[in-house]
Amino acid sequence: MPVSTGACSVENPVQVTSAAVPWNQPAIMSCGLASRVDRFLVEAAEPLARRYMSTEIVRLDHFGAYSCRPVVGMAGRWSEHAAGRAIDVSGFLLKNGDRVTVERDWTIPGPKRDFLHALAKSACDYFNLVLTPESDKYHYNHLHLDIGHWRLCQA
């Protein structure tokens, strides 16, 4: 696993394919982030899916976690992805076969939007930084969740 190159270094790296539910693709991240995502899925995401969608989550869809890169649009500042402390969640596959995606469902009134908004608010109890489509143009299709040093909840 390429997790220690120059400015990028992941403390206690793990490759995750599943936490409380399977993931659409493996992700390299810090052990601390993996643990936090697992807790978030069990304690927040799954109960919210049952509440808003009347079904269970069977897969977490994400765009990735570890990526040795600076913050987009902020030259010189490294992303929490560069330390394996961030994941970009794009949506979920539900047991009833429905998919919930941030890009499609964030703004359309209904239970999927309500689920995503409640999920983002709940994420602020588990992650230090939560960015949503309302944060900026770079997050139009995912929720950025990280356990870095900055605290900001934009849910």
Please provide a written account of the structure.
The chain is built from three helices and ten strands. The chain is an alpha+beta fold and 155 residues long. It has one domain: Muramoyl-pentapeptide Carboxypeptidase, domain 2. Strands 5, 6, 7, 8, 9 and 10 form a six-stranded mixed beta sheet that branches. A two-stranded antiparallel sheet has the order 1-2. A hairpin with a 2-residue loop joins strand 1 and strand 2. The longest helix has 23 residues. It starts with a strand and ends with a strand.
Task: Break the fold down into its secondary structure elements and pairings.
Layout: E1 4-5, E2 8-9, E3 13-18, E4 22-30, H1 31-53, E5 57-64, E6 86-94, E7 99-101, H2 102-105, H3 111-123, E8 129-131, E9 143-146, E10 152-153
Parallel strand pairs: 8-10
Antiparallel strand pairs: 1-2, 3-4, 5-6, 6-7, 6-9, 8-9
Helix pairs in contact: 1-3
